[in-house]
UniProtKB/TrEMBL annotation:
One of its GO terms (molecular function) is DNA binding. Gene3D superfamilies: 3.30.450.180, lambda repressor-like DNA-binding domains (1.10.260.40). This is Helix-turn-helix domain-containing protein. Residues 33-87 form the HTH cro/C1-type domain. SUPFAM superfamilies: lambda repressor-like DNA-binding domains. Pfam families: HTH_31 (PF13560), MLTR_LBD (PF17765).
Length: 275
């Protein structure tokens, strides 16, 4: 059995299992005089809910060598009322990428906001894929900036790196930090083609900042989940920091950034800063 055949058969089995697990009464479907011979929804009911042909549903459930489009997979996921994990699994079986949400989170999910606070004394903050800053703890405010003093339009890591005079001077290797950030932003732009606010933000940066325009034109694409930075803090001097970026399974549009000291000297400096 080839890997493609196995994937196709698993797709078929998964669709059947999810269809048969559903209660028709939850969908407001009309009662049938003839008793149902199988549990769950009928294939024609799934086809109607998904807006696709009955024949196509039959062929999918029979494990024929089909690769449904992302639009069909999305329609089936909605018709079958799949949970986020099940939806991701269906897209994976179909070898398709789910369409991203048009509007990313603009506020922190409450459990994640609590987590950011609980990570103290490690500096931590939460962002969306646009680099909008959604939550931060006191340590991050002392390390970088009290983001609460800024208008919402400026509460964005890329904007701060480009425009804010204090943050511009904070990074010892600012061009590398900016280059890495732009490479991540390009990956986010490709993954969220319908995010008009992100497109407008990139257009604003490209038109208004020569440095951003130059680096954006290089078309580097990279997503760094961990790395290191050197910060110059006016109160405690130079800090060597390691960082981790974590993506919560329940809220994949949000990104948790955590800093840690990279050496003993920086650890001591952070302790003085947070005392």
């Amino acid at each position: 059995m080839t890997r493609t055949t196995h994937r196709t058969q698993e797709l078929a089995a998964f669709l059947r299992a999810r269809r048969e697990s559903l209660d028709p009464r939850d969908f407001g479907l009309p009662e049938r005089r003839r008793a149902r011979r199988t549990p769950g929804l009928r294939r024609e009911e799934v086809a109607e809910l998904a807006g696709i042909s009955i024949d196509y549903v039959v062929r999918l459930e029979q494990g024929r060598d089909l690769r449904p489009s992302a639009e069909v997979v999305e329609a089936l996921a909605g018709a079958l009322r799949l949970a986020p994990g099940e939806r991701a699994y269906l897209f994976g079986l179909a070898q398709q990428r789910p369409r991203s949400a048009d509007e990313p989170a603009t506020t922190a999910a409450p459990p994640l906001a609590r987590l950011v606070a609980d990570l103290s004394p490690l500096p931590a903050m939460l962002m969306n894929h646009r680099y909008d800053i959604l939550a931060w703890n006191d340590e991050m405010a002392r390390l970088l900036l009290d983001f609460g003093t800024l208008p919402a339009s400026q509460r964005n890591s890329m904007w701060l790196c480009l425009k804010h005079p204090e943050i511009r001077e904070r990074y010892a290797d600012r061009e590398r930090v900016l280059r890495d950030g732009i490479a991540h932003l390009r990956a986010a732009w490709a993954a969220h083609p319908d995010d008009r606010a992100l497109t407008d933000l990139i257009a604003e940066f490209t038109a208004g900042d020569e440095e951003f325009a130059r680096l954006w034109a290089e078309r580097d694409v990279q997503v760094n989940g961990r790395g290191s930075k050197v910060l110059r803090h006016p109160g405690v001097g130079e800090l060597a920091l390691n960082f981790e970026v974590l993506v919560p399974l329940q809220d994949p549009d949000q990104r948790l950034l955590i800093y840690r000291a990279a050496d003993e000297e920086s650890r001591s400096a952070l302790e003085r800063l947070f005392a």
